[in-house]
Specification:
Two copies of one chain form a homodimer. By secondary structure, chain A is of the alpha/beta class. The first copy, chain A, has 15 helices and seven strands. In chain A, helix 2 (9-18) packs across helix 4 (37-46) and helix 3 (22-33) runs antiparallel to helix 7. Chain A starts with a helix and ends with a helix. In chain A, 52% of the residues are buried. Chains A and B meet through helix 4, helix 8, helix 9, helix 13 and helix 14 of A and helix 4, helix 8, helix 9, helix 13 and helix 14 of B.
Chain lengths: 317, 317
């Protein structure tokens, strides 16, 4: 023992995370979720030991069966860490319950760690803490980290887009959905899953996605997203999905670094923004000054752009 | 004419916006969407003349019938501006089409201005440009600005939360949805709308929301969100919704300032973050330096927190 200054609490925690201790992992993710400085410190300590895990993002509309599919995937994959993004926002949720249910069936399996993350409602907070939670699981030795988002907005797309592979789940009968997908889906889906494939309309959903893909060019070795039909509740098709994942991983091995570099950029930008706002509120503005400025904006005596311009001028070199 | 320096293009545009010229409004919103400095300049010029419009946020799952309801509301309200948030992200979209359809039926009505906003995919960009677009419509003299979000994620919730009133739309038969709503809906719904009320299960949906509300306390004059049944396609119930909107507006007249102050805070924080990142990239880092740092992170030679700490130290006073 060399005293608290020489050996901060984080050092022991990071060592235990690197050893794969589930309690330490849970503690580390809690620190991250609370946006504690110890969380950032921990990431700094373990970061060099990350990068081995493969990050799998899964998204889709509510009710698409993501939780059930993830549950099935656990059985097919090696040591898995799961981050279930569980916004406290409306229209989503459900992961808390799903989490508990799954915990019961997999808690005995030492290779599996499941954790749901709640949103904080602050700008970018969810993407930030999800990324850090995935890093913790990576550092803890998980081969695969599944990031399951239980929402369908930009935030969730951001999260999934920054994974190593993105799975987009659809369900039959949601014709409007497929229509709506056309706009932006091409960018983020690496693999389509049509779940509940035993339902009426499954083939029609597959055809819709096929039709959409047929408009795109996949020349020059560009990956063409396969469409995998699954029945998550029975496990049918899950092996096909795992096979598609492996094919994608092999196909994109050479460009993985590029994808991860884009992820690093997103993170650095977001962290810079976050740290600056903290700095302004903690150090630049006098006590009560922020409140006064907001009052002046509310009273239309000034405007947000003028206020921000003045604050930024005072804050930067 | 005093030359371009004394009379920038923005001055004429802002005057025309304040006169309610639809072409100027369209141009102004385009500048905002492009994140042009002229857009910020325009907001600065018109901001003092905003605040009169009442901002109505409408959100709900895809297919809930938001566009049709908004279309109906236009007929019931005075001069209306509409911002349809139309993310290019998956699972959403649809507004572009809806926009066109509606344009045809209302283009003759000079009091109505409809504009869809696309996401830019950058952090907070959508919330920022939606808020500014609403300000432009406000400055142009619209009494009511409807902000329709065609998604169900955190981004959309952020947008709707910062309106003066938030309408959350549900459809019968989406039992899971109501379940899922429980977590966070209380915070943002001021009025519930159960649309497609002629469908089987409408009463069950209403009961579910009632049951949820019954768990909350509405003592001390706290607004209890009413549940309005509508059939947007026929217009049934739309008058009831307008009446509920008016009751809410009267009930919260005293606290409107507070709500708008919270909105100002969100905007200022977000703008500070955005401006700082721009400053770092344009002024602080040398050419190619950002790329080198990202490479080092990708190679695990350093980590995002260490990089950001160093950049922030160099950038701030």
């Amino acid at each position: 023992m060399t005293g608290p200054a020489a050996q901060p609490a984080g050092s022991t925690l990071s060592e235990r995370v690197l050893q794969g201790d589930p309690r330490a992992v849970a503690r580390a993710i809690s620190l991250i979720e609370d946006e504690s400085p110890q969380g950032a410190d921990l990431i700094r300590r373990v970061f060099a030991r990350t990068g081995a895990a493969y990050l799998v993002g899964i998204t889709g509309a509510p009710g698409a069966g993501k939780s059930t599919l993830v549950d099935r995937l656990i059985g097919e994959l090696r040591t898995v860490g799961i981050v279930a993004v569980d916004p406290t926002s409306p229209f989503t949720g459900g992961a808390i319950l799903g989490d508990r249910v799954r915990m019961q069936s997999h808690v005995a399996d030492a290779g599996v760690f499941i954790r749901s993350m709640a949103t904080r409602g602050n700008l970018g907070g969810l993407a930030r803490s999800t990324a850090d939670a995935a890093l913790v699981l990576d550092a803890a030795g998980k081969d695969i980290v599944l990031i399951e988002t239980v929402g369908v907005g930009q935030d969730e797309v951001d999260i999934v887009r920054t994974a190593d592979v993105s799975i987009v789940m659809l369900v039959p009968g949601a014709g409007d959905e497929v229509q709506a997908l056309k706009a932006g889906i091409m960018e983020i889906a690496d693999i389509f899953v049509v779940n509940k494939a035993d339902r009426e309309g499954a083939d029609r959903t597959v055809s819709s996605v096929e039709a959409m893909l047929s408009l795109e060019s996949f020349e020059g070795g560009r990956w063409r997203p396969p469409i995998v039909k699954t029945e998550a509740t029975t496990g049918k098709g899950v092996a096909d999905l795992v096979e598609a994942l492996e094919r994608f991983r092999a196909h994109t091995a050479a460009s993985l670094g590029e994808r991860r570099r884009a992820r690093a950029e997103f993170r650095v930008r977001e962290l810079m923004a976050h740290r600056f706002v903290q700095h302004v509120l903690d150090r630049v503005l006098k006590a009560g000054e922020f409140e006064t400025l907001l009052d002046q904006i509310a009273a239309r005596e000034t405007d947000p752009y003028t206020v921000v311009e003045a604050i930024v001028r005072r804050s930067i070199r």
